[in-house]
């Protein structure tokens, strides 16, 4: 006996709507259907869903995820292409992390700025100190 879409949604922390969307977009060709035509998820489907969720949440477009899934369904002949998908996505994620780290520097500066002003009782404290610049 497999899992229903509701059970999978609860277990994965996503909505049933999200799983139906993934199915509609061709991301779940590995999910069987029962005699009634309902999705019948197996234990092994959870790893697939974890990969899809990882790729989606890290910014990969659904179209590219579908291409990856399609390659996966082809088997060993696409191992190198699938490796390239992850290598390219890793670069994209690292670029995003670098961008976010720059934003974090600005946020940290503004926290320092306001905390210093609060401690001094006024923003005027900053006109008396050399400017602490953070490059954009």
UniProtKB/TrEMBL annotation:
The keyword DNA-binding applies. InterPro entries: DNA-bd_dom_put_sf, MerR-type_HTH_dom, MerR_fam. It holds the Pfam family MerR_1. SUPFAM superfamilies: Putative DNA-binding domain. GO terms for molecular function: DNA binding; DNA-binding transcription factor activity. Residues 1-71 form the HTH merR-type domain. Keywords: DNA-binding. The keyword DNA-binding applies. PANTHER family: REDOX-CYCLING DRUG-SENSING TRANSCRIPTIONAL ACTIVATOR SOXR, TRANSCRIPTIONAL REGULATOR, MERR FAMILY. This is MerR family transcriptional regulator. It comes from Paenibacillus kribbensis.
């Amino acid at each position: 006996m497999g899992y229903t879409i509701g059970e999978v949604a609860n277990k994965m922390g996503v909505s049933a709507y999200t799983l139906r969307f993934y199915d509609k977009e061709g991301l779940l060709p590995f999910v069987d259907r029962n005699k009634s035509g309902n999705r019948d998820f197996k234990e092994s489907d959870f790893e697939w869903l974890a990969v899809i969720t990882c790729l989606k949440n890290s910014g990969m477009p659904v179209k590219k995820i579908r291409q990856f899934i399609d390659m996966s369904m082809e088997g060993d002949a696409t191992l190198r292409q699938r490796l390239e998908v992850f290598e390219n996505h890793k670069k994209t994620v690292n670029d995003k992390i670098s961008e976010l780290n720059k934003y974090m520097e600005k946020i940290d500066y503004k926290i320092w700025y306001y905390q210093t002003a609060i401690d001094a009782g006024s923003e005027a404290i900053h006109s008396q100190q050399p400017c602490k610049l953070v490059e954009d």
